[in-house]
C-alpha cells in the first residue's frame, strides 16, 4: 500500500473519504455521483407531504456517499458505462439510509449527518415507517436490475438486521465477546460495503475473479473502518473525528478497546488498575470530567494499541484482496482507501 497522503489533486472534487489521485477518474466519478444524487432525489419523492419531507431529510443532509462511490469505482474496472450502475448506487444508498432511520430510533441518536435525526423531528413511529418506505423504494429499484441483484440485496439486508439484532442482544453466555463484536461489524456494516462493490463489478461487466476480489475487499474494509472509528473515539480530538472523544464510551456502546479490556479482566489477566478502569467505564459517564478521565486513561492503555493493530491488519487484508485487479488508477484508489483507513487508526 502507498501512503494515502499521496492521493491529491482531483480527489478534492469528490465529497467522499475515498482518495482518487487520477484527475480523469475523479472527474468521471464526480459526474456519475451527480447522476446518483439526482436519481436519489427522484427515488424518494412522494405525493404525500409528510412522507416526502421525512424521506428527503437525510438524503438532503448529504453524507459522503461512500457506498455509491464504491459501486461506481468498482464499475470502472469494467467499462463503467452501464446505466444500471447508477441504479445500483442508488439502491445501496437507499438501503443505508433506511437502516439509519431505524438505527437512530434504537440508539436515541439526536443528530445524523449534522442534522436533527428523523425521530427527533417527527417521532419514532414516523422514523420507522419512513425507513420501511425507503427500503421499499430500494427494493422496487433493485427489481429492475435482475434476479441476482434482488437476491444479493435481500441477503445483505438480512445480514444488516442480524448484525443489529446481535449488537442489541450481546454475545451468548460463554461466547467470546471480541469475536462476537467482529461478526457484528461484518454483518451490520461491512456486508453493505461488500455488496456495493460487488454490484459495481457485476454491472461493470467484470470477470468473476474481479467480482469476488472487490467483494472480499469491501467486507474487510468495512471492518477496518469500524475498528479505526473505535480508535478515533478514544484517541482523536473532536475536530479530527467530528464528534466528542468518548461519545461511544459515554453511551456504553460496545467498542473494541473496552471489549479487550473486559476480556483481560474475565480471563484473570488484568492488573488492579485494569479492574478499576473497567469499573469506571461501566459506571456513570454523564459528567464531562469523569468521561475525560477514562478517555485519558484508555488512551495510554495497551488495549488501544491492540485495537490499532487490528484495524491495520484488516486494512492490509483488504488491500491483499486487490491482487487480481489490473494495475491502474482504479486499483490505486481502492488501495489508497485501505491505506487511509490504516493511517486513520495509527
From TrEMBL:
PROSITE patterns: POLYPRENYL_SYNTHASE_2. Belongs to the FPP/GGPP synthase family. SUPFAM superfamilies: Terpenoid synthases. Its EC number is 2.5.1.30. It is an enzyme of class 2 (transferase). It comes from the Bacteria. Its cofactor is Mg(2+). GO terms for molecular function: heptaprenyl diphosphate synthase activity. Gene3D superfamilies: Farnesyl Diphosphate Synthase. Keywords: Magnesium, Metal-binding, Transferase. This is Heptaprenyl diphosphate synthase.
Amino acid at each position: 500500500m502507498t501512503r494515502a497522503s499521496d492521493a491529491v489533486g482531483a480527489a478534492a472534487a469528490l465529497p467522499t473519504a475515498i482518495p482518487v489521485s487520477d484527475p480523469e477518474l475523479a472527474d468521471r466519478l464526480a459526474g456519475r455521483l451527480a447522476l446518483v444524487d439526482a436519481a436519489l432525489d427522484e427515488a424518494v419523492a412522494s405525493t404525500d407531504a409528510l412522507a416526502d419531507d421525512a424521506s428527503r431529510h437525510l438524503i438532503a443532509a448529504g453524507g459522503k456517499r461512500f457506498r455509491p462511490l464504491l459501486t461506481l469505482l468498482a464499475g470502472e474496472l469494467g467499462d463503467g458505462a452501464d446505466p444500471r450502475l447508477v441504479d445500483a448506487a442508488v439502491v445501496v444508498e437507499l438501503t443505508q439510509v433506511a437502516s439509519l432511520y431505524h438505527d437512530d430510533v434504537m440508539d436515541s441518536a439526536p443528530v445524523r449527518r449534522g442534522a436533527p435525526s428523523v425521530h427527533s423531528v417527527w417521532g419514532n413511529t414516523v422514523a420507522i415507517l419512513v425507513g420501511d418506505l425507503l427500503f421499499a423504494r430500494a427494493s422496487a429499484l433493485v427489481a429492475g436490475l435482475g434476479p441476482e441483484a434482488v437476491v444479493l440485496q435481500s441477503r445483505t439486508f438480512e445480514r444488516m438486521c442480524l448484525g443489529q439484532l446481535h449488537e442489541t442482544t450481546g454475545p451468548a453466555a460463554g461466547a467470546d465477546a471480541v469475536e462476537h463484536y467482529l461478526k457484528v461489524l461484518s454483518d451490520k456494516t461491512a456486508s453493505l460495503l461488500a455488496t456495493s462493490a460487488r454490484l459495481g463489478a457485476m454491472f461493470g461487466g467484470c470477470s468473476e475473479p474481479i467480482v469476488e476480489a472487490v467483494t472480499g475487499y469491501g467486507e474487510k474494509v468495512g471492518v477496518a473502518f469500524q475498528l479505526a472509528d473505535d480508535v478515533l473515539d478514544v484517541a482523536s480530538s473532536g475536530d479530527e473525528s467530528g464528534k466528542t472523544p468518548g461519545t461511544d464510551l459515554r453511551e456504553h456502546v460496545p467498542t473494541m478497546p473496552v471489549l479487550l479490556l473486559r476480556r483481560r479482566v474475565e480471563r484473570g489477566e488484568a492488573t488492579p488498575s485494569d479492574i478499576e478502569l473497567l469499573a469506571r467505564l461501566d459506571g456513570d459517564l454523564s459528567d464531562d470530567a469523569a468521561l475525560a478521565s477514562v478517555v485519558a486513561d484508555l488512551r495510554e492503555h495497551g488495549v488501544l494499541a491492540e485495537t490499532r493493530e487490528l484495524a491495520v491488519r484488516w486494512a492490509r487484508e483488504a488491500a491483499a484482496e486487490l491482487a487480481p485487479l489490473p494495475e491502474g488508477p482504479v486499483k490505486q484508489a481502492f488501495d489508497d482507501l485501505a491505506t487511509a483507513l490504516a493511517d486513520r487508526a495509527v
